[in-house]
Amino acid sequence: MTNASQYTNKLLPGSRFPKINCPVLNSNEVELGRVQQDAAWQMVVVYRGQHCPMCTQYLNQLEEIKQSLQDIGVSLIAVSADSEAQLLTHKEKLSVSYPIAFELKPEQMNALGLYVSQPRNAQETDHLFAEPAVYVVNEHGTVQVVDISNNPFVRPDLSTLLRGITWIKNPDNNYPIRGMHKG
């Protein structure tokens, strides 16, 4: 049995979100985790790629909460290791208006502490890909919320996540970043 620390370096809550730039369609590049539009926070959703039907469903569900996120000052971006051509093909199955970045590199996946998988076969995809993750980055560039999965079947429920972020962002709740105790 291998030690998990031998192959993964999880991005911890309360840590600085790494500087990661990726291309987006109809634009040059975007820096993930960076304030976008009029939002002070950003939700970064990592998905496996166009080969994953569960990712397609999740990305479309994200569109349903996009306005509610904007209403509480959180912008939304998704990213995968897919190529531009793969993203263009995938867009035919998506009904989303938020930006989607592509060409997430293995070293960037590592910086995010993602689980990385090899394709089962050439029909699945032609490159390494990241397993799903959600990061909510606050106005200081700090990871406020993190959820990293090793497969497509474990992802946060979006309505619960939205309620939680709304609670966290309410200054009356004085809710700290959770999961930072080392013991």
UniProtKB/TrEMBL annotation:
<dbReference type="Pfam" id="PF00578">
    <property type="entry name" value="AhpC-TSA"/>
</dbReference>
<dbReference type="InterPro" id="IPR013766">
    <property type="entry name" value="Thioredoxin_domain"/>
</dbReference>
<dbReference type="InterPro" id="IPR036249">
    <property type="entry name" value="Thioredoxin-like_sf"/>
</dbReference>
<dbReference type="InterPro" id="IPR000866">
    <property type="entry name" value="AhpC/TSA"/>
</dbReference>
<protein>
    <submittedName>
        <fullName>Alkyl hydroperoxide reductase</fullName>
    </submittedName>
</protein>
<feature type="domain" description="Thioredoxin">
    <location>
        <begin position="11"/>
        <end position="170"/>
    </location>
</feature>
